Every structure is written in C-alpha cells, then in structure tokens.
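user: can you give me the structure for this one chain? tokens are fine.
assistant: on it. calling the predictor now.
[tool input]
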Amino acid sequence: MPVSFPLTIGQDFAGEVMDRGKAVERFRNGDRVFGFAQGAYAEYAAAPESAMAAIPDSIDYPTAAALPTAGLTALQIIRDVIHAKPGMTVIIHGAAGGVGSFASQIAKTFGAKVTGTATGEDIRYLNSLGIHGVIDSTREHFEARVHDLDAVVDLVGGETLTRSYAVVKKGGTLVTTVGQIDDVGAKRAGIRATRIVVKRSSADLAELASLVEKGAVKPRVAQTMSPADAKKAQVLGERGGTHGKRKGDFKSGVNSI
C-alpha cells in the first residue's frame, strides 16, 4: 500500500469525539465512538463518519478498540461470504487468532457447526467458547477429521490453504484472508473460492457492537499496552506473537495495536 512519510500507523480506534466536521450528522462532541481512522497510534486522529459507530454504554474502550478490523473481517466472512446458517459445517483455520476468535463465535451465533484448528493454549481457549471440534494442527492433519464441509475459512494460508480445497463439498465455499486463490483447483473441486479484504462499514460496526453487548461475542483481549510500548506491540503482531488483540492506551481513548 503506497504511503507518504512521515507516517503515523494504526487504523483501529476507540475514543471520544473532540471535534466534528460541518457535514457530520450522527455524532456530537463527547460521544464515545469506535472504528477506523488514519494514524490511530496517537492521542488524536481523524476518522470519516462512514467508518465509525457509537460505543454502547456497556462496552469499555479496550473492548471497542479490539473490534474494527478483526471483528468486521470475521463478520463479513461469516455473514456475507459463507452465508452461515443453522446446521452448516465449517472449519476455521487459525480459529483462536484475531480474526479467527471472532469468526468462531459469530459462526456459532448463526447456528453453524464449527471445527477449529489451533495449538497449545489456544485449544483450551476455543473449548471455553464451546468450540468442541478442535483439531491440534501440530499433531493431526485436519483432512483426517473433516470432509464434505459446507465451508472453509482460512486465516493461515500456505500449505493449509492448499490442502483445504479437498475437504469442501461440491458447491461449498472456501474463503481466505491471507493466501492466493487457486482458480483451477477450485473449479476442479467444484467449489467457490474467494479472498476477502475487510470493507469499512458503520452499519457493520454497529452490528458487531450489538453482538458484543448481548454477550454473543467476547473479544479476546491479550493486554493493554502504553504508547511507549507501541513498537513492542507492533513487532509481536508482525511475528504472530499475539493471542487476540493488544491495544495502546492513550489519553483520548484506546487505539488498537
């Protein structure tokens, strides 16, 4: 993605409206909001009205800050791509990660039968969510446990994605956030395969917040870190050293890292 320097990174935020543009209609100064901004690793950031939503009273800033990118990606995958419904069978690779932990819970709220791949303490975490068909990817090939699935949600990529085409039933769906689609392989398997990038949506943010408010979805918050530790948090994320979301706690709100 092309950028201009100097650059303040970060896009997920939760905070308070300090000032608003003349065309803004839905929010007032002092409102608690969350969503997408440019340069969220800061005390102040500008955000478009179309990419933010109100924070319900029962949700705190750290929780709201964990929602935008990971939560909306998961919601749009489960609701709009695989069209989850009661009885649908789906496997989620990386089911305990940032997007995966949301996707696992959202799929359950839609009534889908969820299997997840994970390792170590993530297995216990998924079991605590009621995801009982968990496969330890370090000990077992998922192909030995599942087949003829309605959908695969791939959040891992690489060999995992390549091997996933074979476990989807004809007419089923495979979706990935991290890999390149093999159109030939998908056609040969008789499935629909697609790659998704999150779409910023105020309405989807509000829907996600409603699921959290109802207790149907609980963000996996790893820890809250100070601005001085922003580099450390960024490196942890890049190396895959996070469980859930880490956030920077700034004076004007909480910005997701």
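assistant: here you go. The longest strand covers residues 168-176. Residues 12-67+219-256 form a domain with the Quinone Oxidoreductase; Chain A, domain 1 fold (CATH 3.90.180.10).
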